[in-house]
Amino acid sequence: MKDLYPSRHATVAEFLPRHDSVVHGDWNADAPITQEQAERFDRDGYLVLEDVFSDAEVTYLQREAGALLGDPDALEEETVITEPGGREVRSIFRIHAQSHVIERLAADARLAGVARFLLNDDVYMHQSRLNYKPGFQGKEFYWHSDFETWHVEDGMPRMRALSMSVLLAENTPHNGPLMLIPGSHRQFLTCVGETPEDHYRQSLKRQEYGVPDENSLAELAHHNGIIAPTGKPGSVVIFDCNIMHGSNGNITPFPRANAFLVYNAVSNRLEAPFGVDRPRPAFIAARGEPQVITPITGPLMEEALT
Amino acid sequence: MKDLYPSRHATVAEFLPRHDSVVHGDWNADAPITQEQAERFDRDGYLVLEDVFSDAEVTYLQREAGALLGDPDALEEETVITEPGGREVRSIFRIHAQSHVIERLAADARLAGVARFLLNDDVYMHQSRLNYKPGFQGKEFYWHSDFETWHVEDGMPRMRALSMSVLLAENTPHNGPLMLIPGSHRQFLTCVGETPEDHYRQSLKRQEYGVPDENSLAELAHHNGIIAPTGKPGSVVIFDCNIMHGSNGNITPFPRANAFLVYNAVSNRLEAPFGVDRPRPAFIAARGEPQVITPITGPLMEEALT
């Protein structure tokens, strides 16, 4: 199969054309978002949906997050990621398979329905995680396109995936929120160099390969600017798989927390990686026959009571 | 002399009362700031003056900053501070004594006149520096009260000093701008532990002693909030010597740069340090007979041409 998005092969970075749509479906009156929202997602590569979940639902999710973060020994060991040089839990991967509450969240029609529309296909969970960025000592996460990594290291063929960050703590301008470069999803920026074996063990903590070069980042940021959506718990930030994003550290006392869900189109399921011999493990990138998500309507808590 | 602000003596932090005014003068119609500004400074501990310097003056200052940062070998070696583990210049101290342009800036009536009013005394330069926080890799600077350090390590007796940050690059919400906790200047938060000898060599790069405890910081931030003044080059952020402040790192391509000037009242000149045997060197904290500043009016460039 021809590699439409070759990366980490050359010594010089370049911008390549995007061969895939951003909004894969045609908007119609039955769509779960407005036409204006669909156009904005297409143009900017991200969308903020405010107050998607009620206060009661947020409390319910926060309680679950606290329970999971507070008892990491109950989880699959490899899915628990700590701060570099620290013991504080920073992320728990494959959380939809380890928590019924998060499984229900991922299937919620308010999320999965939007993913199905934007990707115009059945969807499945490519990756999920619970992120907790503690106050005072939260580390930065450098700029990257998720797709670049998913393509090179996991074998995702095309740009037909998206991420949803369900805010479980308030995003302020000061606590190291997700920063995005609007419009940067419209080109594919190659990264230089090659990828060492088992790179993922380190890259979950600190990115060193698959890192965009400073000149290209400066060009993107000067041309498009940088935005950092703020929002209250219960809001959702949706962003395209190829948008350039990162986050600064956080010395404020205010932690950041979110449930992070990556939806992929079933037609875009993983193949062999495009840049490494051995794919990353399944807890980071689901492989094999996709488990198609059937959207569920109604409050999150109802399901939990059955 | 009784130590009104003891710190680093105990194992538990505490909030002590402030025994000094914030605005030391009485406002009158001749004051260089409005009554509302004076009241705001008193209440919040900081003030932003927008567009103090013209575009031509900003260009003139930026050119001088570039020349100084670009040729550190021409400067007193100990005044040049690099990033931890790097060679990029982060700060140049005692810059008013090494650059006629910055000396003129420090004497400008738009700055020194305001300092004289707020401190109600003749003023001198306690410390000056040129700060440059590069894009992509700019490190964080943890929360601290300047006065705590100036008192313990330099021997500044009372809270009768203030800082002015003259912006030479745009402060955006994303490039690691100065963050302040409004109102935190109204109490003195003691720090725990003792200070090792020659602590200053490290502390200019990374603060390890004289660090406020997390519980007290959380209390301050939850009660007062956090603000990060944004502004264009030529704006000035003035803040009280005892306000709690810090800054996050900066992964954006946008650098931060400012000229940082600390004015102290001549009546508040340094004595023996209150918490260490040997004071820090004079390039960090001016000692001896103060060199009183006589405010100069008119554009910055005129002086340079004489």
Automatic annotation (TrEMBL), chains A, B:
Its cofactor is Fe(2+). SUPFAM superfamilies: Clavaminate synthase-like (SSF51197). The keyword Metal-binding applies. It comes from the Bacteria. Its EC number is 1.14.11.55. InterPro entries: EctD (IPR012774), Phytyl_CoA_dOase-like (IPR008775). It catalyses: L-ectoine + 2-oxoglutarate + O2 = 5-hydroxyectoine + succinate + CO2. Transmembrane segments: none annotated. Keywords: Dioxygenase, Iron, Metal-binding, Oxidoreductase. GO terms for molecular function: 2-oxoglutarate-dependent dioxygenase activity; iron ion binding. The keyword Iron applies. Pfam families: PhyH. Involved in the biosynthesis of 5-hydroxyectoine, called compatible solute, which helps organisms to survive extreme osmotic stress by acting as a highly soluble organic osmolyte. Catalyzes the 2-oxoglutarate-dependent selective hydroxylation of L-ectoine to yield (4S,5S)-5-hydroxyectoine. Homodimer. Belongs to the PhyH family. EctD subfamily. This is Ectoine hydroxylase. It comes from Sphingobium phenoxybenzoativorans. The lineage of its organism: Bacteria, Pseudomonadati, Pseudomonadota, Alphaproteobacteria, Sphingomonadales. The gene is thpD.
